[in-house]
Amino acid sequence: NSIALELIHRHAPQFTNNHPITQHQRLVDLLYHDIIRHGIMSHRRQAKEEDPLTASIKMPLASGRDFGIGQYITSFKVGTPSQKFWLIVDTGSDLTWIRCRYRCSRGDRSCTRKGRINRKRVFHAPLSSSFSPVPCFSEMCKVELMNLFSLTTCPTPVTPCAYDYRYSDGSAAMGVFANETVSAGLTNGRKTRLHNVLIGCTDSFQGPTLQNVDGIMGLANTKYSFATNAAATFGGKFSYCLVDHLSHLNATNYIIFGTNRNQVKVSGNTRHTKLELDAIPSFYAVKVIGISVGNKMLEIPMQVWDASEGGGTIIDSGTSLTFLADPAYQAVMEALKVCLGFLPARFPALSVIGNIMQQNYLWEFDLKGKRLVFAPSSCNSS
C-alpha cells in the first residue's frame, strides 16, 4: 500500500540532453538556484509573519499646495476595475465621496469611458462591477444614514438612497450612497481590497473648496467613515505625519490604517493623551488643561476646555489654522504679541487644532485604546 516515485537529480544525463557538465558548471548552477531559492523562502517567511491580517493599509499623503488648497490630500482607488482620484483627508467629515457619474442617458458617450467631464476627473459608476447603490427603501437609508443627510425621497424601491451633505462653510455635496470596493497598498508591499465600503457618488457640488481635487476622504469617528472601516479591519488605529503645508506634491509621507505605526524618524519624546471619543460626537477630542508660554501657564478659564460647558478641543486635519475660544485667544495673543496662525472663536465655542499646528508631528489615533500618540518629526521616512 505504498507509492514509489523515482527521484532523479536534475543534472542527470536525461535532463542535460546527454551532454555531460563539468564540476565547475554543477557548482555554479547549484549556487545560482540556491541563492534564488533562499530569497524565495525568506520572502515567504516575511510575508507569513506580516500577512494582510497583521499588515496595515498605506496611502500617500501630501500637502494640497499644488492643488490650491490648505488641506492634505491622498490618492484613492475605488471600483472594479479601480479608478484613481485625489481626495482631501478630513478627520472632521463622516462621508467619503467622489465626483461621480451614476446615470447614463441614451447617447451619452461620456459614460462609456474613463476620463473627465467638464475638465473634472469623474468616477464612472457604470464601469465598476462592484458598485452597489444603497436602496432608498432600506433601513440603512431611512435610519442609519440620517446623520449623513440622507433624503426621504423614494419614488421606487430600487431608487438609490440620495443625500444632500452639508458642510459648516455652506458647501454641499449631492448624490447617491453606494457600497464599493477600495484598493490599497499594504506596509508589506502587497495589495488589498476593502469590500462594501460606503461611499458617496456625488454628481453635484456647491462651494469653492473642491476646484482641483476629486472629493473627500471622511475620517471622522463615526460608523461609516473610512477611518472606522479601515481601522476596524486592520487593528483599530490610524496614523499620519503631515509634511510642511508649503511642500509640493512630490514631498509625501503616508497615512497608515492599522497597528504598524507610520515609520518616520521622531526627533523628540513620544507622548500620549486620552482621546475623548464620546465628548464631542464624531470628532477626535482631547482634554486640554491649559496653554503655557515661556514655561508660564496662562490664565484661561477652565470652561474653555470643558466640552460639557460649550468648550472643548478637537484635532482636525481639514482645518488649516488653529481656532481658540476667545478667552484662550486673547490670553495667547497678549503673551505672544503676534499672530501665529491662530483665529478667535466666540465663546462658547469649540477650539480646533488645525493641520498647520499638526505639521511635522507624527499622530497616531488609537480608536480601540482611546489614546492619541504624538511625537515631533520631520516626516521623512526612516
From TrEMBL:
One of its GO terms (molecular function) is aspartic-type endopeptidase activity. Keywords: Aspartyl protease, Glycoprotein, Hydrolase, Protease. Coiled coil: none annotated. Transmembrane segments: none annotated. The active site is at 90, 316. CDD domains: pepsin_A_like_plant (cd05476). Residues 72-382 form the Peptidase A1 domain. It holds the Pfam family TAXi_C. GO terms for biological process: proteolysis. Belongs to the peptidase A1 family. This is Peptidase A1 domain-containing protein. It comes from Gossypium davidsonii.
